[in-house]
Amino acid sequence: VMPTLNSRERQGTVLDATPPKRVVVVGQGYVGLPLAMAAVDAGYVVIGYEIDEGRVESLRTGESYVEDITSELLRKCLDSGRYIPTANSDLLIEFDVATITVPTPLNGRRPDLSFIQAASKTLATYLRPGALVVLESTTYPGTTEEVVRPILEFGSGLSADEDFFVGYSPERIDPGNLTWNFSNTPKIVSGINLESLAKVDEFYSSIT
Asked: Which residues does 29 contact at the CB level (< 8 Å), separation at least 6?
């Protein structure tokens, strides 16, 4: 079972004082786009990676297709120069943090993990020592350690126990909710070990 902390249990956690700078958000839908906007607002350089080129074109022109994100906010983030929507995976190079916010549609009675697997393979190509990868997609317990971690390790040649950090933080977006949004909804964070947990907690504490 992965170590976990909720927002009330963070006090006393020893965190690295140097925040990450370059964030990749894989998937720019109703979960990924609000996360990307929050990270830009917190001062990060954010690569919004989306394989749907139609969506990328809309994002580049400042037209939001996500209910909770106004086009005005999107254009503000674009104008900052710190939000880069793209379908080009080469721009994922040298990321400090990557979040996977891709869909997991039901296939019968089980979630289809093909999008998670594809995202993990892409990130593995650019994974470097010290980086953090967080899964947010809705899925069954064990996906992070049994699916994502092995793909990252195999594709990068690195070890999650020694070289990089891995965690899970379930998405909490309620589309259209005017009271509870990304910024004020409590997040649960977890990691495959205490070091990963501290890194995940550090990142989300900086944006929500």
From this structure: 66, 101, 102, 103
